[in-house]
Design goal:
With about 200 residues, this protein is α+β, with helices and mostly antiparallel strands. The protein has a single domain, classed as Aminopeptidase (3-Layer(aba) Sandwich), CATH 3.40.630. About 15% of the residues lie in helices and about 40% in strands. The chain contains three helices and eleven strands, in the order βββαβββββαβαββ. It has helices spanning about 40-45, 135-145, 165-170, and strands at about 5-10, 15, 30-35, 50-60, 65-80, 95-100, 100-110, 115-125, 155-160, 175-180, 195-205. The strands form three sheets. The protein has a seven-stranded mixed β-sheet. A hairpin with a 5-residue loop joins strand 1 and strand 2 (about 15). The chain is globular and about 50 Å long. The chain starts with 6 loop residues before the first strand and ends with a strand. Bound molecules: coenzyme A. The site of coenzyme A has 19 residues, from strand 8, helix 2 and helix 3.
């Protein structure tokens, strides 16, 4: 499985083992996406800063038999911190590595009943965002999902307050496929008021 995953360069082309330097960006290091292979990768994943800040959210409104999302400005901006991920090594766990540093990670879980490939975790460290790392991770997760026979779609959970992630997933071609206003129990560390689970899916054509 490891050998069949392509390393992915930030400019969107398949790479060798070396990744790519973008001209004129001396501070930016080459990033390659690969299967997490060693305990050091897990340490790196544990150090990823997955927190984010947003001045917009999607407020979930409802009628008796329906829901809709309203874009809403929030001031001051919301700060959200996720608990540090602690996945296990497997061929479904991918890292974006920049030399010895782990810039991001993504993990898949296959649900045999629904035949969905579920993205269990995806994060790019704050200092590496906006450089195509998230796109590369999604691309490789998609390719990994296609290796599992009969898998129909990529599926994931995010939150109505994670406006940046919703923009990212929409840009990646995911569509909203549901929500759950009861999932998050009060008292979960870091839970923000009005936080609702949103689900997105992208077909594996
Ligand atoms: C969401 C996240 C993974 C995106 O990763 P990233 O590396 O910054 O994304 P990329 O640079 O690959 O962006 C890919 C596309 O999404 C768009 N995008 C990314 N973040 C965006 C944002 N905040 N607003 C609007 N568009 C955005 C980019 O413009 C880009 O589009 P383009 O290629 O057409 O220009 C990253 O912001 C992150 O880790 N956030 C914190 C953790 C988190 O929320 N994880 C998701 C939990 S469900």
């Amino acid at each position: 499985m490891i050998a069949s995953l392509q390393l992915h360069r930030l400019d969107g082309h398949a790479a060798g083992t070396s990744g790519v330097w973008k001209p004129g960006e001396m501070a930016r290091r080459a990033v390659v996406v690969r299967v997490a292979a060693a305990p050091g990768d897990l340490d790196g994943i544990g150090k990823i800063d997955a927190s984010y800040s947003t001045d917009r959210i999607y407020r979930v409104r409802r009628s008796e038999l329906g829901f809709w999302l309203d874009e809403e400005q929030v001031s001051p901006p919301l700060q959200k911190t996720y608990s540090r991920p602690s996945p296990q090594l497997s061929d479904r766990l991918l890292v974006a590595s920049a030399g010895t540093e782990i810039a991001g990670y993504g993990e898949l879980r296959f649900d045999s009943w629904s035949r969905r490939a579920e993205i269990e975790g995806l994060a790019v460290s704050a200092g590496f965002r906006g450089q195509g790392v998230g796109r590369s991770l999604i691309q490789e997760l998609d390719e990994r999902a296609r290796q599992e026979p009969s898998t129909r779609c990529l599926w994931l959970e995010t939150q109505n307050v994670n406006y940046p992630a919703v923009q990212f997933y929409r840009r990646m071609g995911f569509r909203l496929c549901g929500l759950d206003e009861t999932l998050y129990r009060p008292g979960i560390p870091g839970l923000l008021p009005g936080e609702v689970a949103l689900y997105f899916a992208r077909d594996l054509a």
